[in-house]
Write a structure and sequence with these properties.
The complex is a heterodimer of chains A (654) and B (151). With 654 residues, chain A is of the alpha/beta class. Helix content of chain A is 42%, strand content 18%. The chains are: A alpha/beta (654), B mainly alpha (151).
Chain lengths: 654, 151
């Protein structure tokens, strides 16, 4: 065969092939078109009361629609003009007629309420192309009021070839049966976020409150100290009896205020978690005896009996916060005295060892279990207690007026309303019991009360302490050649530095300190004072302000500077004018806050002793870093009062 | 000798001292500081006061011989004297010292001189009184009585 023949036959073949393909294509196209039409028909077909022949093949879809038609959910499809294309029976039963091709307002009776909202949602869905949902209050005559959850979902089509244009909207309406007042649930929009916000704001408010209380108390304290000092100075200026009495009333009011401030500060610092408890050795029996003595003095006129009892099992020395224990005990005893006119006040102290095993029959009962531990539900009861720990258990009983049952609920709240006579100076405040309770709980214990009106009351508190023998860590300043056994129970005597140049004053001061159980190192001027501070560690400094060479203000400034920076300030040795220094002293202006020391050394209490009790003088003392001041001439009670704030008072010789 | 009469005398003298403002509460404080561990405290302090004050008054008198006068120095002395007399409870002496310092501040030479004389007089008075009281105390104790403490 020649090439032209081959070409011809292949060409014929190709043409035939081509014809086949074209035919196939046409078939496919028409089938495709038929399919599309079918789909379109399916889309447009309404309720399937009569299944139209075009959708016969889509039996499943028909079945779905059939199921939907009888459901109690209203689902409908509207076109972009919001005309119904199809709807479930449910909706039509509301409407009472066939809805196809109609608008809402052509279907529902005129009095129908809620249609605008539904229309709005549908329009939103069409415009935004995203799902819209809301609750709608609906009223349909003969059906009543309902609350519907309406969900409008746009449906996308192929109009104009673009795929993303909403061409209709599917609306689902759920009737939510709600009882009358739980409409509020629907209306309420409190979300988790809002609740969280509320909690956060509340916590912030509490923090702000505590800071405010703290700052205000300090701010009030300074001029109050000034006031009391001035009153003292006035007292020694030659008054007649009447004036003296008036002045004493002034002082006692001022002292009450000072005590209230102290309580407020304590409460605020406890709430903000800033209060730190001491863990120092102390003697519980000593505290009981001291307070008993005080009680005897306080009940002198009333003629009450004061009884005290310290159980045999109470150890001689325990480790804990003796100052706070004393504070609580003292308050409760004073309280007892206040409300008892005749009979007795008893102080009873016992101890129960914590043995660490819940099975031990001597293990304290649930009642004694610490308040703090009770809150930790998942932890075993013995957590935090080790062998050698003690519960100190103190009861203060009185034969006084008793507390009525109605008062029990708010007894330990802040600012409870029980009145007390304002002429009795107890330093008592409405904060007292609340403070005691918080302190006791902070120490791992509980404060409870039993009382009967007319018979008396018993206040009981427990605190957790450690046994001294077990928790004996060697003191960093212990002398290595000490022959005594490591657990030395001798209380460390506080070291006081006294800077005073007048010999008579020195003799008087030493004698007063001796009466209080203290000894002191004496220096005669500011330079010697600083020398002594550099050589030795002191627990408290009593500084005369007017001294030669270097006055007390400069000494205080130097000490604070050293505490904060670890170095002594220059230029102080050549007797610079303290006025220059005072401009740089803002940092030390501080009403005695112990926790402010951020430097290398702990803040040593510095007490100014001065005859100048003018406000400006007092302020200058505080500005230079003093913590308190005692006016001259020094009165014994005042010295004792101030010292007891900073040092534990050894037993006094009466 | 009957301690009772001595005690009455003592009490009267003490009361008079308070009424005259020769001595004030501060002196009572000193008496209260005296106890078996500190048995001669008042006598010791008082004699220290005498010693100290006499020296001071001497030094003060000398400053008036300077020309020009050193008021600062005078003020310093007076300040000391004020301190110790206050600690003892010599109320009138202390009050005079306050006035004295005011004159020093004014640099009033005559005023200061006047004050010095007054202060010397007052010191002498309180010294005599204190010595009398202390002597009475000794006599009471020697007679077997106890020294009454005034409230």
């Amino acid at each position: 065969m020649d090439s032209s023949a081959i070409d011809r036959s292949s060409t014929e073949n190709c043409a035939a092939e081509l014809e086949n393909v074209r035919a196939e294509n046409a078939k496919l196209r028409s089938q495709n078109e038929a399919l599309i039409r079918e789909v379109e028909q399916l889309k447009l077909t309404g309720s399937s009361r009569i299944a139209s022949p075009e959708v016969e093949s889509s039996v499943e879809i028909a079945g779905l629609l059939s199921a939907l038609k009888d459901s109690c959910i209203s689902i409908s499809y509207c076109d972009s003009d919001l005309r119904y294309v199809w709807a479930t029976h449910f909706l039509e039963s509301f409407a009472g007629k066939i809805v196809h091709g109609k608008h809402d307002d052509e279907i529902f009776p005129v009095q129908t309420k809620g249609l605008e909202e539904v229309t709005f949602l549908r329009k939103q869905a069409l415009e935004s192309g995203s799902l819209q949902m809301d609750y709608v209050q609906v009223f349909i005559p003969d059906r009543g009021h309902m609350t519907w959850l309406v969900i409008a979902n746009p449906s996308f089509g192929h109009e104009g070839g673009k795929q993303e244009v909403p061409v209709g909207v599917i609306t689902t309406c759920l009737n939510i049966p709600l009882a009358g007042d739980s409409q509020a649930l629907v209306r309420s929009r409190t979300t988790e976020y809002e609740l969280r916000e509320a909690v956060r704001l509340t916590e912030e408010a509490i923090r702000a409150k505590n800071m405010f209380l703290s700052i205000m108390s300090h701010e009030i304290r300074t001029p109050l100290n000034g006031l009391l000092g001035l009153a003292q100075a006035l007292e020694s200026s030659g008054l007649d009896r009447d004036q003296r009495e008036l002045l004493q009333a002034i002082v006692s009011s001022g002292t009450i205020i000072a005590d209230i401030l102290g309580d407020i500060l304590d409460l605020a610092s406890m709430e903000s978690g800033a209060m730190k408890l001491e863990t120092q050795p102390f003697s519980p029996a000593d505290i009981v005896h001291e307070i008993a003595k005080m009680a005897v003095a306080a009940t002198h006129e009333k003629g009450l009996e004061v009884l005290s009892y310290v159980g045999k099992s109470v150890p001689e020395v325990v480790i804990g916060d003796g100052l706070r224990v004393r504070q609580v005990m003292k308050y409760l005893v004073l309280n007892a005295i206040k409300f008892t006119q005749e009979g007795s006040v008893q102080i009873r102290l016992d101890s129960i060892p914590m043995l660490g095993t819940p099975d031990d029959p001597r293990f304290p009962s649930e009642e004694l279990v610490t308040g703090r531990e009770k809150r930790q539900k998942d932890q075993p009861v013995k957590s935090g207690c080790r062998e050698g720990d003690f519960v100190l258990y103190c009861q203060i009983a009185d034969t006084g007026l008793g507390i009525p049952k109605e008062a029990f609920a708010t007894l330990f709240d802040h600012f409870r309303g029980l009145k007390f006579s304002s002429t009795i100076n107890h330093g008592g405040t409405g904060l007292g019991l609340a403070l005691c309770k918080q302190l006791v709980e902070l120490m791992g214990g509980r404060l409870t009360v039993h009382s009967e009106v007319g018979k008396g009351s018993v206040f009981t508190f427990s605190v957790l302490c450690k046994s001294h023998d077990r928790d004996c860590s060697p003191e960093p300043t212990a002398k290595p050649v000490d022959n005594r056994p490591p657990c030395n129970h001798r209380r460390k005597e506080p070291k006081i530095l006294l800077a005073e140049d007048n010999k008579v004053n020195v003799m008087v001061a030493i004698s007063m300190l001796k009466r209080l159980g203290f000894t002191a190192q004496v220096v005669a001027n500011g330079v010697e004072a600083l020398e002594a501070m550099r050589k030795d560690k002191y627990d408290l400094v009593l500084l005369d302000i007017c001294m030669p060479l270097m006055d007390g203000l400069q000494v205080a400034y130097a000490i604070r500077k050293f505490e904060q920076t670890g170095s002594w300030p220059e230029g102080i040795w050549d007797g610079n004018d303290s006025k220059e220094l005072s401009t740089a002293l803002e940092g030390f202006r501080n009403g005695g806050r112990e926790e402010d020391s951020t430097g290398t050394s702990p803040r040593i209490p510095i007490i100014a002793v001065t005859a100048n009790a003018l406000r400006s003088d007092i302020e200058r003392c505080f500005a230079h870093g003093m913590d308190a001041f005692i006016p001259k001439p020094v009165m014994f009670q005042k010295l004792r009062e101030i010292l007891s704030k900073y040092l534990p008072l050894p037993l006094e010789q009466q | 000798m009957d301690p009772g009469m001595l005690q009455r005398q003592y009490v009267e003298l003490m009361q008079a001292s308070f009424q005259e403002n020769l001595l004030d509460d501060q002196f009572s404080q000193l008496q209260q500081l005296q106890d078996p561990t500190n048995p001669d405290f008042v006598a010791e302090v008082v004699s220290l006061f005498f010693e100290d004050s006499e020296k001071l008054l001497n030094d003060l008198s000398k400053t008036f011989e300077h020309n020009p006068m050193n008021f600062k120095q005078i003020d310093a002395y007076v300040h000391q004297f004020k301190g110790s007399s206050a600690s003892i409870g010599a109320a009138r002496v202390k009050a005079l010292c306050v006035a004295f310092r005011a004159y020093c501040e004014e640099e009033n030479r005559d005023g200061c001189w006047q004050c010095l004389q007054q202060v010397k007089r007052e010191f002498f008075l309180v010294k005599t009184r204190l010595q009398a009281l202390l002597q009475l105390e000794e006599k009471i104790i020697a007679a077997g009585g106890t020294v009454p403490l005034l409230e």
